Amino acid sequence: MTTEDYRFVPNVLRVKAGSPFILALYNAGREDHEFVSPVLAYGTEKSGETMTLDTAAPGLLKPGRSLRFQVSAPPGTYLYSCRRKGHANMTGTLIIE
Question: Which segments constitute the EfeO-type cupredoxin-like domain (predicted)?
């Protein structure tokens, strides 16, 4: 997945349930972005840029940097967003089915 200025590409992700998966995020934009989602509250391991996984205190992904998460979450629909000021419409959906 890529962050561009004010959007996630793609903004809908579908993955199969039953085993951990890798969620990779790259900031191709010119501004800092956040990746905030309740899916991060489940078993995650991260690599790349240091980032807080607590959804109440998200970290930043700087331009040109990337993150990789190994996620193990139950089936469901999880919203994700960037909560930076002025980025209110920067949202997406992760569907684990």
Answer: 2-96
- Report the predicted TM-score, pTM, of the whole model to 2 decimal places: 0.78
Amino acid at 16: K
pLDDT in tens, 14-51: 999 998 888 888 999 999 998 888 776 665 555 554 44
Residue listed under structure tokens 């990337």:
66
d(CA 20, CA 53): 17
Could you give the domains of the chain? 2-96 (2.60.40.420)
Mention every residue, 6+ apart, whose C-beta is less than 8 A from residue 95: 12, 13, 14, 15, 76, 77, 78
Task: Tell me how far apart the alpha carbons of residues 42 and 65 are, in angstroms, rounded to a whole number.
Answer: 23
- The per-residue pLDDT for 43 is 57
